[in-house]
Amino acid sequence: MANVRLGIIGLGAQGGAYAGFLADGKVKNMVLGAICDNDPAKKELAAEKYPEVPFYDNYIDMLESGKVDAIVTCVPHYLHPEMGIEALKRDIHALVEKPAGVYTKQVRELNEFAATKPELTFGIMFNQRTNPLYQKVKEIIDNGEIGQIRRTNWIITTWWRPQGYYDQSAWRATWGGEGGGVLVNQAPHQIDLLQWICGMPKKVYSNVKYGYQRNIAVEDEVTTILDYGNGATGVFITCTHDIMGTDRFEILGDKGKIVVDDSKKITVKRLKKSESEMSATMSWADVTKIFMGQGLSEIYTEEVIEFESVWGGQHIAVMENFAANIVEGTPLLAPGSDGINGVALANAIHLSSWLGKEVELPIDEELYFAELSKKVEEEKENPIK
User: Fold this and answer.
1) The Cα angle at residue 308 between residues 304 and 311, in degrees rounded to 5
2) Fewest CB atoms within 10 Å of the CB: 41, 126, 351, 373?
């Protein structure tokens, strides 16, 4: 096909942005095929902005209209797997928004169904995978430039959200509506990047606060210890109540260190000899020099790389890559099947806090679903909002 006709399900902030990109011709090999939303106000908005584009208030009707070749799911998280499956059933390519779902059991169903349709393109909107900065970090790690990873630390607290943000809709920041808080709404990209770049941990132990600084049922403060199973450890911290915010990602290897500041600057320090070798062979006189801050240039090199990010550019890049896979067979940067990894890690963080103990990955999916269902039922009986 010359152009992929994309159907947008959900004309909210994200869906509206995608519609704008397509209408402005910013996405190669892709056009706006149709829009779907069950809000009458969105129908009026679509008629005003995109009068030539078919509009549907039921996504199944859109899927069966013959007007779309692919869809993107800009809807609440619980619906992503269901809509992805329904699209693929009808031989329509599926691009699901992050997260792929709320719990791994439902995401696994999506992945397993997608595997029965290998001729179709199944992607996920992990736009940060197209970010040249994180591609560079992954390249450095994969090339072994800082050696074996010993420790990861990511503090990402640039998600400040006031109470009014949570109060703007009844489903937001609820177990029944969103399936969680900062882990499923704001931080899925970082959770995906962490495992994409550094690998999945084997165990997780977390301290999670629910409604800590906001009047909500779900998490707004997370501190997690990661155990990679080979001696390497990690810490992941995120929250939505730090108005000043910090974004700092450190990866320590036995041959160097990577520090990412504000998702804009990478500092790479490469040791000329591995730390183990220096520990075993360095004279005490040379060690004393290091303690005094001397001769550091003799033991490592330092490279600083800065990046600029254009708003929307990374989303467009995912859409273009998705379209290129359909049209030309270009490999996907973010295969839909990868979405389960970030969901699994978020589920493990939740489950550890609910059980008050360390949990192993892969987690017990049935146990997680049972515990989540309890949260949903408790919320129905005693709603906070």
Assistant:
1) 150
2) 41
Cα-based angle 161, 163, 165 (whole degrees, multiple of 5):
60
pLDDT score, position 310: 67
Alpha helices in the chain, H assignment, sequence order: 13-23, 40-49, 59-63, 79-89, 104-115, 132-142, 163-167, 188-198, 275-281, 284-291, 313-328, 339-355, 365-381
CA–CA gap between residue 343 and residue 357 (Å, rounded):
19
At residue 339, the pLDDT reads 97
Residues ≥6 apart with Cβ < 8 Å to 195? 201, 341, 342, 345
CATH number at residue 21: 3.40.50.720
For the stretch 165-201, pLDDT in tens is 999 988 899 999 999 999 999 999 999 999 999 999 9
Angle at 308 between CA 303 and CA 310, to 5 degrees: 160
Q: Are the C-beta atoms of 171 and 263 separated by less than 8 Å? A: no
The answer on 60 and 152 residing in a single domain is no
269, containing H or E segment: strand 265-271
* pLDDT beneath 50, residues of the chain: none
Strand partners, 30: 4
- Do 108 and 136 lie in one domain? The reply is no
Answer yes or no: do 80 and 204 share one domain.
no
- The enclosing domain of 363 has a CATH number of 3.30.360.10
Strand-pair category, 4-9 with 70-73: parallel
Query: What total of structural domains would you count in the chain?
Result: 2
Whole-number pLDDT of residue 1: 66
Omega prior to 99 cis, within 30 of 0 = yes
d(CA 233, CA 176): 33
Nearest Cα neighbor of 32 from 70, 64, 79 is: 70
